[in-house]
Each structure stands twice: as C-alpha cells, then as structure tokens.
Amino acid sequence: MFESPVHWMIVAIVILILFGGRKIPEVMRGLGEGIRNFKEGMSGSSHTPAPPAQTPAPPQAEKPAEEKK
Known about the structure:
The protein is mostly helical. It has one helix at residues 5-43.
C-alpha cells in the first residue's frame, strides 16, 4: 500500500497537520508505552509488582434493636 517514499511523506505531513509539532512526541511516547505494556502482558512477565491483596473488612457489630414498651 505505502511502497514509495512519496506516500510516507504524505502520511507524515497529514499527521503533522492533525497533531501539530508539539503533540507528536507525546503521542509517540504513549504509543511506545502501549506497545511495551502489550508485549509484557503477552509474555506474562511484569516489571511492576502486583498490588497487595486486600482482605475484606470484618463485619461491624450490629446495634441492639431498641425494645418498644
């Protein structure tokens, strides 16, 4: 589909117009992080530790029902 350098230049110009020069590094950084996270997820390894398992809170003691006279 994009076989010649002219096609790639047109794509680059369109991206530059859509995102602007300042947004492109942010978009590329986010894309790189997404690819890295995807690869880590596919390999089953993660560099970030899993959050500790939370234990359920103990049930609160019920208040005794007030007796009606």
